[in-house]
TrEMBL record:
This is Dual-specificity RNA pseudouridine synthase RluA. It catalyses: uridine(746) in 23S rRNA = pseudouridine(746) in 23S rRNA; uridine(32) in tRNA = pseudouridine(32) in tRNA. Pfam families: PseudoU_synth_2. SUPFAM superfamilies: Pseudouridine synthase (SSF55120). InterPro entries: PsdUridine_synth_cat_dom_sf (IPR020103), PsdUridine_synth_RluA-like_CS (IPR006224), PsdUridine_synth_RsuA/RluA (IPR006145), RluA_PseudoU_synthase (IPR050188).
Length: 223
C-alpha cells in the first residue's frame, strides 16, 4: 500500500450554514453535518464551533453518541437523555446500527462489489493516520458496491460492519482507489480532483431507544 505524505489540515473555517435537522423528538436528534465542520471541539484555538456545540445551542440536552471526521458529511445521531444515549451507545457497540456511505474514489475497481476485511490501528508516529496491521490491528470490515462512474472516478456505496477510525478511507486506499479529496490517503491527482473529501454518511438505521421503532433515515449525497 502506497504511503502518502500527510498534508496539513487547512485552517479551520467552519461553514456558516443552518442546522440541518433530519429527525427530532423528545429523545433523539439526528443532524446532517456539512463537510468542514468538526463533530466535537478541538484543542486548538478557534475550534469551539462544532456540530456538538451548535446542537447544544439548539437543544441543551443534545449529546453525541458517535462521530464523523471533520471533512466527512452526513448523518449523526444525538441522544437527548442519559438513558437514550446509553441505549444508542449499546446499539453501536453491538453492531445493531446499520450505516451506509457514498464515497467517490479515484479510478475504477476491477469488480462491481466486494468485502474488505483488513484490521486497523493508529499509525502512532503519524497520528491521526491509521494503518492496516494484521498483528496489532482491530477487526475492520467494509462491504462495498460500485453504483456509478465517470471517466476517472467511481461512486461506491459502502456499508461498514465495524466502526474504526478512518476505516472507509484506509479500506478505499487498500483497494487501490483512494477517496477523492482525502488529504491523508489520496495521491495528488485524486486529492486535487475535488474541493472537498467525497465521503458522505447517506443512511443510518437503528432502533428508537424508547419506542423500539426501527428508524431508517437518509441524507442525499451532496457531491
Amino acid at each position: 500500500m502506497t504511503v502518502i505524505p500527510q498534508r496539513p489540515r487547512p485552517d479551520y473555517h467552519p461553514p456558516m450554514v443552518p442546522l440541518a435537522v433530519v429527525y427530532e423528538d423528545e429523545f433523539v436528534l439526528v443532524l446532517d453535518k456539512p463537510t468542514g465542520l468538526l463533530t466535537v471541539s478541538g484543542t486548538s484555538p478557534g475550534t469551539h464551533d462544532c456540530l456538538e456545540s451548535r446542537a447544544i445551542d439548539y437543544n441543551s440536552e443534545a449529546r453525541l453518541v458517535h462521530r464523523l471526521d471533520w471533512d466527512t458529511s452526513g448523518l449523526i445521531i444525538f441522544g437527548l437523555t442519559a438513558k437514550t444515549r446509553a441505549h444508542l451507545g449499546r446499539q453501536f457497540e453491538d453492531r445493531v446500527v446499520k450505516k451506509q456511505y457514498v464515497a467517490r474514489v479515484w479510478g475504477h475497481p476491477d469488480q462491481q462489489s466486494g468485502i474488505v476485511n483488513q484490521p486497523l490501528r493508529c499509525d502512532w508516529p503519524n497520528r491521526p493516520r491509521q494503518m492496516i496491521d494484521h498483528e496489532q490491528g482491530r477487526e475492520a470490515i467494509t462491504e462495498w458496491e460500485a453504483i456509478s462512474q465517470t471517466e476517472t472516478t467511481t461512486d461506491l456505496l459502502m456499508k461498514p460492519k465495524t466502526g474504526r477510525s478512518h476505516q472507509l478511507r484506509v479500506h478505499c486506499q487498500y483497494l487501490g482507489h483512494p477517496i477523492i479529496g482525502d488529504r491523508m490517503y489520496a495521491p495528488d491527482e485524486a486529492y486535487y480532483a475535488h474541493e472537498r473529501m467525497c465521503l458522505h454518511s447517506t443512511q443510518v438505521e437503528f432502533y428508537h431507544p424508547v419506542t423500539r421503532e426501527w428508524l431508517n433515515l437518509k441524507s442525499p449525497c451532496p457531491f
